[in-house]
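Exercise: predict the fold of this chain.
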Amino acid sequence: MPIHIAHVVEAAAGGVARHLIDLVSGLDSTEFRCSLYLSFGRPDSWRGPLRVLGEAGHKLREISMARVPDPRVVKALAEWARRDRIDILHLHSAKAGYLGRLAAQSAGIPAVYTPHAFPFQRTTDPLRPLYRLIERRLAARTAKIICVSPGEREEAMLAGLPEDKLAVIPNGIDPARWTPALPKERAAARRALGINDEEVVIGAMARLAPQKGIDLLVQAAEDVLPDFPQARFLIWGDGPQRESLIALARRLRLPRVQFVGETREPARAYAAMDVFCNPSRWEGCPYSVLEAMARGLPVVASDIAGHAHLIADGESGVLCESDLPGPLAGALRIVLADEDVRAAFGVAARAQVEQYTIQRMVEGTAAVYCEVM
């Protein structure tokens, strides 16, 4: 009989939803069966993609996970697990990780937890010490914690989580889908955006929220544009900081920093770029960086846990000190100054990212399920 996994998800924005779809769709149905327990307190913008899994025959249950702690949610999750004959609760992100591990203990089944970046990695959050304490306490109720990068595992160990509970399984993509843009594709993508051949496009694709550090990129642009007037900064995405970031660019008089908005064609956006920039303050294992590297783009990124394993500094991109516009500007200068460096970094990035596949992620997770049973 297949092992029955229930994925408990409170927030499935962006990468978490994609990770879940890849994982649930990729598991061998003769060995594993999946259900999803979702929070209905989130907007349809993220719930929509997960409905694809319901249409594929996976059971979906919904409950509000707005409050932590909430003993009613813990009780409901435990009851569902018993009723659905769940073998393992797999918990995604911190809030579901808290509620779900208590529920798994109540139901007498193992809990697997993927934080997708621990809450104590949020450098702007004053509650980081509390989050470390909570994660240490809950580790005892966890069969396995899946870190999506080696750096995340190091952060966990520094926070006092037991090494034997930690597994590293990075996110993955389909490298065959994300290939370097052909000249015709690149020309069309740039033409649509009014980009001429002399311009060097630094692109970013992110939710416009404090985590992603786009404010740092705008400030770094102010630094580098006087020396590299051919540079153009294009930022794809939306979020709560959109208006304030546009206002910042206007205040700094940066017409060459442009906010393009959301895109449903990320491959086309990457095709228009010469450099990809991800100045995040914290990350798990960002899909945007994996995609950009697979498209053959050099990457400039903050030197944080979620980036350090992906980007070979000085080989496939440039890593810089996080949360500061000055080091980011310095890193951008390196790639803006030399077209040959950009080309060499891009080739290396494509070669390096080929190890990060969906298949490896699925196989690694399946092995964890078998281990904890």
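Check your answer against the key: The chain has two domains: 3-172+357-372, 183-353.
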